[in-house]
């Protein structure tokens, strides 16, 4: 049952995108009450189906799949018939593909003037890189992600999740919500140009701008904090110590100063003085944390107000009591997978997520039109 208060309850979205950004954006709106119809290529479907059922299910639970070949005149006409009664179309092709199919914004608006077309592409619909191929790592690289120094011993390593894609999907979902509601009020839709590169650039730009003044000496950058870092423990595990405010350094000294008196060095007494001795502070903490196991450090800090966290393994993550208490992740034992709910708690409630994974082409345009009455 959908939340009766949600303004998205009767919103219908056609999702012709694949892989992550578009499907994730529409899955977010689905969890908030929208109806999402997934249009897939007959035979192969969304490319993520080739990566396994669990990968496809991740962003497509609760949607309804219609198989249409958009190059076929009859299927193209059926697609436009869907557009007539929907609020938005989300696509993730390279710029120009929808126009070549005869399904650009102008063609869609002729069928439904209030339609919102959301185009999600790597570098956007315009600009010198618009036609370039790319994936998450490329957009991070071109947005200066690795230009920002953050560690005394900084390393270039790939992120563990697809940050650029998630940034784009979040902006797409937010923009779709505004554009759809505006179109309903005014009767006129619009074309949303969501660039994955622009999206992650909006996250990196401020810090990268600051980093320009420290390219010859990255450690001197204020973004490099010697006591705000990841440290290895004696058993080969790792912990995160997120000291930013000086009160946490004071607490660390109170807890460990007797055993490690170097922490009480007057040169390290406040944040600015520690910044003047970054290598020494970082080396001190590096050696200190190697002296015990992760479990021992967890016990040592358990009763103290410190921004300390163990780096959890995958198994530990899902057994974590806070993760279980919040209920965002729901195990699905029959499928040996999980369903991830909307990560914001609404006081008026959200519906239980539909965990159904659509079979390719299980739904039809005719069935949709019958529903519309």
Task: Describe the fold and architecture.
The protein contains 15 helices and eleven strands. The chain folds into two domains: 12-205 and 331-372, 3-Layer(aba) Sandwich (Rossmann fold), CATH 3.40.50.10540; 238-310, no CATH class. The strands form three sheets. It has a six-stranded parallel β-sheet with strand order 3-2-1-4-5-6, sandwiched between helices. Strands 7-8-9 form a three-stranded antiparallel β-sheet, covered by helices on one side. A two-stranded antiparallel ribbon has the order 10-11. The protein is an alpha/beta fold and 373 residues long. It has helices at residues 21-31, 53-60, 73-84, 97-100, 105-111, 136-142, 163-186, 196-211, 246-256, 271-275, 278-289, 294-301, 314-319, 321-326, 365-372; strands at 12-15, 35-40, 64-67, 88-91, 116-121, 191-195, 228-232, 238-242, 308-310, 329-332, 337-340. 39% of the residues lie in helices and 13% in strands.
Question: Keywords for this structure?
Answer:
transferase, 3-stranded antiparallel sheet, single chain, 373 residues, CoA-Trfase_III_dom_1_sf, CoA-Trfase_fam_III, transferase activity, CoA-transferase_III, Rossmann fold
List the helices and strands and how they pair.
Elements (H helix, E strand, L loop, with lengths): L11 E4 L5 H11 L3 E6 L12 H8 L3 E4 L5 H12 L3 E4 L5 H4 L4 H7 L4 E6 L14 H7 L20 H24 L4 E5 H16 L16 E5 L5 E5 L3 H11 L14 H5 L2 H12 L4 H8 L6 E3 L3 H6 L1 H6 L2 E4 L4 E4 L24 H8 L1
Parallel strand pairs: 1-2, 1-4, 2-3, 4-5, 5-6
Antiparallel strand pairs: 7-8, 8-9, 10-11
Helix pairs in contact: 1-7, 6-8, 7-8
Organism: Pseudomonas alkylphenolica
Keywords: Transferase
Pfam family, one: CoA_transf_3
């Amino acid at each position: 049952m959908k939340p009766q208060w949600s303004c998205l309850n009767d919103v219908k979205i056609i999702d012709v995108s694949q892989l992550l950004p578009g499907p994730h954006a529409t899955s977010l709106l689905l969890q908030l009450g929208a109806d999402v119809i997934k249009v897939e290529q007959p035979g192969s479907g969304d490319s993520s189906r080739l990566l396994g059922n669990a990968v496809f299910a991740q962003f497509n639970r609760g949607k309804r799949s219609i198989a249409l070949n958009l190059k076929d005149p009859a299927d193209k006409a059926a697609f436009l018939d869907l557009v007539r009664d929907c609020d938005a179309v989300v696509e993730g092709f390279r710029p120009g593909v929808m126009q070549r199919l005869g399904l650009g914004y102008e063609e869609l608006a002729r069928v439904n003037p209030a339609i919102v077309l959301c185009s999600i592409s790597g570098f956007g619909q315009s600009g010198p890189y618009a036609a370039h191929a790319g994936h998450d790592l490329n957009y991070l690289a071109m947005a200066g992600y690795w230009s920002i120094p953050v560690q005394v011993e900084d390393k270039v390593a790939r992120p563990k999740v697809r940050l650029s894609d998630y940034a784009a999907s979040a902006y797409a979902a937010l923009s779709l919500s505004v554009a759809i509601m505006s179109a309903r009020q005014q009767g006129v839709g619009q074309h949303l140009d969501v660039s994955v590169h622009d999206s992650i650039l909006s996250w990196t730009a401020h810090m990268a701008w600051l980093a320009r003044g420290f390219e010859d000496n990255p450690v001197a950058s204020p973004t490099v904090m010697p006591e705000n870092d990841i440290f290895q423990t004696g058993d080969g595990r790792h912990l995160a110590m997120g000291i930013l405010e000086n009160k946490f350094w004071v607490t660390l000294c109170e807890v460990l100063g007797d055993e490690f008196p170097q922490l009480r060095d007057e040169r390290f007494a406040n944040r600015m003085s520690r910044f003047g001795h970054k290598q020494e502070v970082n080396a001190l903490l590096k050696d200190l944390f190697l002296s015990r196991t992760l479990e021992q450090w967890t016990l040592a800090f358990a009763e103290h107000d410190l921004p300390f966290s163990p780096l959890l393994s995958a198994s530990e993550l899902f057994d974590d009591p806070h993760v279980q208490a919040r209920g965002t992740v729901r195990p699905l034992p029959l499928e040996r997978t999980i369903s991830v709910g909307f990560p914001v708690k609404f006081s008026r409630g959200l519906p239980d997520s539909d965990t159904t994974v659509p079979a390719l082409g299980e739904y039809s345009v005719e069935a949709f039109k019958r529903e519309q009455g």
